[in-house]
Amino acid sequence: MNRSEYKWPYANESGMEEMVQSDVLVLGGGLSGCFAAIAAARKGLSVAIVEKGAIEKSGSAGTGFDHWESACTNPCSGVTAKEIAEAYVREQDWYSNGIAHYIECREGYDRLLDLESFGGKVRDTEDEFVGAEFRDENTKLMFAYDYKNKFTIRVWGSTFKPALYRELKKLGVKIYERTEATGLLVSSDSGGTVRGAGAMGMNVRTGKFYVFRAKSTVLAMSRPARVWLFDPDLTGLCEFRPMQSIGSGHAMGWRAGLEFTMMEKTVRAEFSAAGRSFPPYGAGNNHNTWYAATMVDARGVEIPYVDRDGRELKTVSERYYPAPGQKFFLKGGVIDNPKYEYRGPETLEFDELIKRGYQLPFYADLSRMPESERKVIWGMMIGEEAKTKIPIYQNYTDRGFDPSKHMLQSYGTGWQSANFLEQERQFFGAPGGVMHDWDLKTNVDGIYACGDQLYASDCAGFACATGYYAGRKASDYAKTVGLAEINSQDVQAEKERLYAPLYVRSEEGITWKELNSAISKAMQNYCGGVKCDSLLLEGLDLLKSFEKDIVPSLYAENPHDLMRTHEVMDILTVAQIVLHASLARKSSSQPLCFMRSDYPEIDPACDRKHIVLRQEDGKPVTREVPLDFFGDLEEEYEKRNQRYIREEAVHHE
Ligand SMILES: Cc1cc2nc3c(=O)[nH]c(=O)nc-3n(C[C@H](O)[C@H](O)[C@H](O)COP(=O)(O)OP(=O)(O)OC[C@H]3O[C@@H](n4cnc5c(N)ncnc54)[C@H](O)[C@@H]3O)c2cc1C
Predict the structure, then answer these.
(1) Tell me: the pLDDT tens digits for 310-356?
(2) In terms of pTM, does the model score above 0.70?
(3) Choices 1.10.8.10, 3.90.650.10, 3.50.50.60, 3.30.230.10: CATH for 18-267+425-653
(4) Which protein residues are within 6 Å of ligand 1, measured from CB?
(5) Potential cystine with 115: which of 8, 120, 385, 481 (Cβ 3.0-4.6 Å)?
(6) Distance between CA 62 and CA 390 in Å, rounded?
(7) Burial class of residue 121 (count of CB atoms within 10 Å of its CB; 0-12, 13-18, 19+)
(8) Any idea where the domains of the chain sit in the sequence?
């Protein structure tokens, strides 16, 4: 079919507008957004949720996930919420989100029980793994990683998003799917105090414009992507997270004056970027989902696991227990050093392995593991984890892969499945995001944030727990205020911004893919592995020139392309936030993976602090916040959450 014969299958509603009113508005319908909406609806408030895709399968967890971290309050747990939250903070050298981690550790298991009550599967109810070392026979919960302390639970994550979707409908939440949020509405009173008034958006199939008025708004739109790496031919493989999550929540927050922190932290890319890696979890390895697979070299000689103290472990079982004297370890042994010796080809450990005579290629050999351990890795974890069900588990099985007989080759660094260049960066490993207080409130009254949109965020339990928490705090606020006035000029300006690409002629225009490629090239050149003021300033100039010269030439032929175009305009904004944040830090930092040639000193004591950044009248404004600003985690949490402790947490016991 040639282009002229193609007919857009949806109604054209691009001149239409609808106004929606609710007490609480949630932007983003992933794990965190769904839980924010559920918390508000349970409080009896009217709730609207806006999701760019279809909630039943949208977001990072839409295809599933395999383990639930930090279920510290489950009946088998050997650790407290405080111990694990503080361990996260220490592990990240205090560039960490103590508040959100504590909420995750304290309330996460309550959310898992919620998911079960909505129809999600969290226990081995079919008794498939009876007798396995990781299964608790009373509760039928199955644990991962640390079998002594039992705070990470293996789950059937692919059942969770459909369950959440059903619950939203049951609670009467107003659901706006296939609708992108594009801008926040803020309102200032006569005294100049600014507060959230809602948001604007567009249906990505029909082009209809929406104004969502609300007393409070929760941001749940995940984190940036495609800033350094983009392949116009393999767009869906450009990032680890879903294609539609590119940090538009950050971009609209920046435009509205919200504060961010740690935006200078970016790691060398690790995963599925621009088609240059194998599908995540598709190569044999021993990390994360594949922990603690037996690894062998080309001759079939086993590569040993060692404990924190370097003691070689003789049995498979020992890989799952802390070392003598060690209280607990996090996923794969992160606390107090890794629990495996094998790290991968480009690390020092690899040189050591080669020196000792191990030969490439390496393989994961599940056939040498006890049957229950093999089955739980290949069939449950590989199957439930993100996009593994069809691309990995089903496809490999259909092609004859049998883990009881075959080994799976390990590529790259084992779990990362590819090697990237220093300048190929990614938002990964607890990156920067929205700054917030103990209510998960941003610096603007009435605007809250949760999940991967928060700074230093990480996992599913974190997303669900912070989503619910933000939803309940946003509800408490909504009960105290009326709807804020909205400014019709802001609405008009947003419409002009959004629809402009429809009026550019294709022969003269530039597509979103071209701009995305240009941004990523610019970021590799000017904000790569090693940074300095002059590079960063040149980068800013270049991005400004894109805004001036390229953005007015962007064209789109239909609402879907228009959405992609809006996304890249947001990526352009995110890239500038990163450059501003990088300029603001005048030293190098190991935990922030931040190296400067003009300020090479690593983590000087005077710079060990959060640099918090926002935009005012187009200019960046910074302030500094101590890394321990959250205080004693347990004490501060309990001060603010007595009602939850009395009423809701008890309900889950
Ligand atoms: C491959 C993979 C495997 C993972 N495995 C695990 C695991 O095993 N265990 C674990 O604990 N964690 C895991 N995680 C992390 C976990 O899935 C995420 O941390 C969690 O889902 C984040 O939830 P969220 O609600 O913040 O974001 P998401 O679930 O990503 O949801 C964000 C939502 O916002 C929507 N959105 C984005 N922009 C807009 C916009 N402008 N307007 C409207 N909607 C918008 C998106 O469509 C999406 O639905 C994994 C992540 C990935 C990518």
Answers:
(1) 788 899 999 999 989 989 988 766 655 555 555 444 444 666 777 88
(2) yes
(3) 3.50.50.60
(4) 27-33, 50-53, 58-61, 65-69, 180-181, 220-222, 240-241, 244-245, 248, 280, 385-386, 451-452, 459-461, 463
(5) 120
(6) 13
(7) middle
(8) 18-267+425-653, 288-409
